[in-house]
Amino acid sequence: MAHPLVLQLRFTRSEFRRALDGVTEEEGCRRFEPINSLGWIVGHLAWQEQLYWLTRAQGIILVPEVNEVAFGKPASTPSLGDMWQAWRTVTSAADTWLDTLTTEMLPTFMTVNGKPHVESIGSMLRRCTYHYWYHMGESQAIRQLLGHKDLPTFVGAIHAEAPYIPE
Question: What is the DSSP string of the chain?
Answer without folding.
Answer: ---HHHHHHHHHHHHHHHHHTT--HHHHH---TTSPPHHHHHHHHHHHHIIIIIIIHH---S-GGGGGGSTTSPP----HHHHHHHHHHHHHHHHHHHTT--TTTTTSEEEETTEEEEEEHHHHHHHHHHHHHHHHHHHHHHHHHTT--SPPPSS-SHHHHS-----
